[in-house]
Amino acid sequence: MDSAVLTALVRSPVLSTAQLRGIIMAVAAIRPQLLLELAGRSDLCDEQRKHMLREAPRYVVVDLLGAWSPDQDLVRAAVESHGAGPDLIVFCGARSWTELAAELAGQVDWSDVQQVASRWSHTLGEEMPVAVRLSLVDAVLTERDPRPELSSLSEWEKQRFFERLDQERAARASTAWSLLERHPELWVTLARDNERSMQIRRILLGGPDELSDEVLLACLPEVLSVQLRGKSYLTRARLHQAALYVRRWPQLRHLAADELHALVREVVDDGWTAGARHGGADWRAIEALAELSDDSKLLEQAVEAIRNTEPPSYRTQNRNYIEEWLDDRAKAVVALVMSPHVPGSSLITLVPILDERALETVCLHSEGDLQSACEEALSELRQVAESKRPRLIEVPSDDELRGHDDPVAVLHTHLRNLKGRAAQRDLTIEGLLRSCFVTPEILQCLPAPDVLESAEHAELVAEMLAAECGDDYARWSSLQSRCDPPPARTTTFGKWLDQLSEAGGR
Q1: Residue 281 and residue 273: Cα distance in Å, rounded?
Q2: What is the pLDDT of residues 89-140, one digit of tens each?
Q3: For the chain, N or C: smaller number of CB within 10 Å?
Q4: What does the alpha-carbon distance between residue 267 and residue 291 come to, in Å, rounded to a whole number?
């Protein structure tokens, strides 16, 4: 239909109620922009305006509302048909309808929350009212979509679902923090008395670099994982989480000392013991215990659990596992060393079972008898390691060689050490190249790059090169390419000379 016909219909001076209703439907479907002109008719009633809002595309709804006298009922009619979008919330804000704006903000999709905040600032140029801000926070933290029936999903589908859920929750928390970051005056109230308090506490404890004591105390239920009380299978998680928060916010040790000690008593009452994990010590929970508890008896039980725990026999061949096991044990021991509530005499009993790395770490954080015991154990370990280390055979010095009838023969006996391990091989090469009794035959057995870089035997090497290249121009011309880049250390000087000869076609 030609737009002129539609325009004429819109401008018809006399239309019945049914005709207006039909024209609204037609114009909304064919040429929605004409709805703005239709909205200006004086014979429209509120019901027809609501009908127009229902039929109109979403992008013209706010313009239609702006064409009429302010009416909150019309806004609600628009919301019923199109949902609470950023444009409608800002529209209410522009008319100082704060209560309605806050109501709609609580209904907006969480992915539109950032857009509401940016539009409010850009369009209105003023701070968002607290009520609207809090409604947006509530909207962004409310998960409205139903979860799938997990029993109907494959393992891969479950994994993907939880990955996406974690990503979405992280994005929601980031959006909520962007609304709260510049408004610390709201933090205590939200963390203490809000339907979303648990989520707010997590956001606050993981967000800013500084929190006041009042905010930290308001966040204590999250630090203590009070929602997990009585769940024996989650006692370890409670200890671990509290310790993580205390490391991030050390002032909690003093602000909430009684509460943290009570947490330890609770997890023990719920069945946790230091040696309860797979029949061995629970390293990370012991580390957390040492940071949270003042119960010397319980801490000594943790020391005993460490002393009596060895890695599972079936995993001793797994090097990565053993490395992690030893590292976790060392952290648990250090945490106990740092605790003022563990007797030094008890800690000394752990010294014999610690490896060198753990002993070094404990030495750094201990003093007195414990430090002395660690130093003594370290010394013994190093002596044992040194005694087991194969002795390196050095090439005799030139002064020593002069005492032999045949120095060259002595040097030849050391060539077999070139097949030893790296440390022995390097020591032998260095010693041979240092000797004035070295011969061309010996040089040919050494790595080519070492010989070519040897200043001590430059004249001998030059003589060998001159003899090898002779009058063959091709060999001389290939010399540069044979030296740059340097040959591999696996190539002997003798083999390198043979390759130089081949360049001349011999």
Answers
A1: 9
A2: 999 999 999 999 999 999 999 999 999 999 999 999 999 999 999 999 999 9
A3: N
A4: 15
Pick the closest to residue 89 from 46, 34, 131 (CA basis).
Answer: 131
- Overall average pLDDT of the 271-279 stretch: 70
Query: Are 4 and 17 within 8 A, CB to CB?
Result: no
Q: Which residue has the tokens 């090169």?
A: 465
Residue 57's pLDDT band, with cuts at 50, 70 and 90, is: very high
Give CA–CA dist 143/137, Å, rounded: 12
Task: Give the pLDDT of residue 286.
Answer: 92
Distances (CA, A) of 124 to 129, 223, 388: 12, 39, 78
Q: Which amino acid is at 127?
A: E
| CA distances in angstroms from 390 to 413, 420, 424, listed in the order given | 19, 11, 9
398-425: burial string, b at 16+ Cβ within 10 Å, e else = eeebeeeeebeebbeebeebbeeeeebe
- From 54, 57, 55, select the one nearest 74 (Cα to Cα): 54
Q: How sure is the predictor about 388, in pLDDT bands with cuts at 50, 70 and 90?
A: confident
Q: Minimal CA–CA distance to 83: which of 100, 99, 104, 101?
A: 104
* pLDDT at residue number 392: 84
Tally of residues, the chain: 506
3-state DSSP assignment of residue 109? coil
428 with 420: CB under 8 angstroms? yes
Statement: the pTM of the whole predicted model exceeds 0.70: no
Residue pair 482/500 in contact (Cβ under 8 Å)? The answer is yes
What average pLDDT does the structure give for the chain?
89
Q: For position 506, what pLDDT does the model report?
A: 46
Which single residue is written with the structure tokens 């709201």? 186
Q: How many CB atoms lie within 10 A of CB 476?
A: 16
283-338: per-residue pLDDT in tens? 889 999 999 999 999 999 999 988 888 887 777 778 888 888 888 888 999 999 99
176: tokens are 């909520």
Q: What is the CA radius of gyration of the chain?
A: 41
Which one-letter DSSP state was computed for residue 397?
A: P
In 3D, which of 252, 265, 151 has the Cα closest to residue 201? 252
- Report the alpha-carbon distance of residue 342 to residue 264 in Å, rounded: 16
